[in-house]
């Protein structure tokens, strides 16, 4: 069965649909040295299989039918399947989209041996995905909040669901006060400015905090580091903040802090 180890990752799924025998063959004998990630995209309602180089193939769940499509068995359901000509994604058609996502996730999870959904990207219309994922694996997942979400949507999501990691990559919805949730979020990564103050940071409970466009002064950074040095922010392992002072001097800041030991990193270090 060595020939099966040469099959590309994107070909495993269609080959597995040919028969139950082929499913078990490619599942058991494909190249398993490549670590894979499963992600759900709530915008186009698809399940993505992602390789270490960032490439992915996806299976889209569409509520409806396609009379010209071939019928295949996915997790015990006979459903039509077709392939997108422009994106080369697989499109599956279901009477119930929630049943479709559940079936596709479990099928791909078993086929590729990836038990956990790593990340969900969320828009306003598919919040039920979070109920499904937390029932499946509790809060062990990452959530990416999409630009289309309103401030009300974001409050509803973070009040009712509890992802370990939250990503905000594009824009903050209005004046969404995310600071009130920073005691339950383990890690927050934002590439846009958020309404977060220094006091919010001092009172948070995050392990990782990345605020790429929130501006802090040199005195605020000094106060933050001093708080960390005397035992505050006990869970914090990594943070990245933007300093707006043009003449900011990190050595000067660190030299004024009592009880804080530090060293300049010269190589990559994994702290988790």
From TrEMBL:
Residues annotated as domain Sdz-33 F-box: 194-241
One Pfam family of this chain: FBA_2
InterPro entries according to UniProt: F-box_Sdz-33
Protein name in the entry: Sdz-33 F-box domain-containing protein
């Amino acid at each position: 069965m060595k020939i099966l180890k040469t099959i590309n990752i994107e070909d495993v799924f269609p080959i597995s649909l040919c028969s139950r025998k082929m499913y078990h063959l490619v599942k058991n004998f494909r190249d398993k040295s490549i670590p894979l990630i499963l992600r759900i995209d709530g915008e186009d309602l698809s399940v993505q299989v992602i390789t270490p180089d960032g490439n992915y193939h996806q299976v889209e769940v569409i509520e409806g039918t396609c009379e010209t499509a071939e019928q295949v068995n996915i997790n015990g359901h006979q459903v039509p399947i077709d392939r997108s000509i422009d994106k080369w994604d697989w499109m599956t058609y279901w009477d119930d989209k929630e049943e479709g996502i559940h079936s596709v996730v479990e099928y791909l999870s078993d086929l590729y041996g990836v038990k956990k959904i790593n990340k969900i990207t969320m828009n306003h219309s598919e919040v039920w995905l979070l109920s499904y994922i937390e029932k499946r694996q509790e809060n062990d997942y990452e959530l990416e909040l999409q630009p289309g979400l309103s401030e009300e949507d974001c409050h509803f999501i973070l009040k009712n669901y509890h992802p370990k990691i939250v990503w905000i990559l594009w824009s903050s919805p209005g004046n969404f006060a995310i600071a009130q949730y920073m005691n339950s979020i383990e890690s927050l990564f934002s590439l846009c400015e958020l309404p977060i103050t220094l006091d919010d940071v001092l009172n948070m409970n995050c392990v990782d905090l990345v605020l790429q466009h929130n501006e802090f002064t040199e005195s605020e950074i000094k106060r933050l580091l001093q708080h960390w040095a005397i035992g505050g922010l006990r869970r914090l392992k990594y943070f990245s903040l933007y300093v707006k002072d043009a003449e900011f001097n990190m050595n000067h800041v660190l030299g004024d802090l009592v009880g804080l030991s530090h060293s300049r990193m010269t190589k990559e270090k994994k702290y988790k």
